[in-house]
Q: What sequence folds into this?
């Protein structure tokens, strides 16, 4: 799972570098931030730093 997120992040970074339209840059940047957050959570779950069970 993390490999696909890492690949997605690299692709989004490449798109962001090549985009000149401000609206498209904002959209790609938002997608990039979301993918980076998902990667952080996935890595934390793998390391056992985050409990994936619901709190109830």
A:
């Amino acid at each position: 799972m993390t490999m696909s997120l890492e690949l997605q992040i690299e692709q989004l970074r490449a798109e962001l570098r090549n985009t000149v339209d401000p609206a498209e840059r904002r959209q790609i940047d938002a997608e990039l931030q979301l993918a980076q957050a998902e990667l952080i959570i996935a890595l934390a779950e793998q390391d056992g730093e985050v409990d994936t069970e619901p709190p109830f």
User: Anything to note?
Assistant: Residues 2-8+21-46 form one domain. The longest helix spans residues 22-46. The two ends are 27 Å apart (CA to CA).
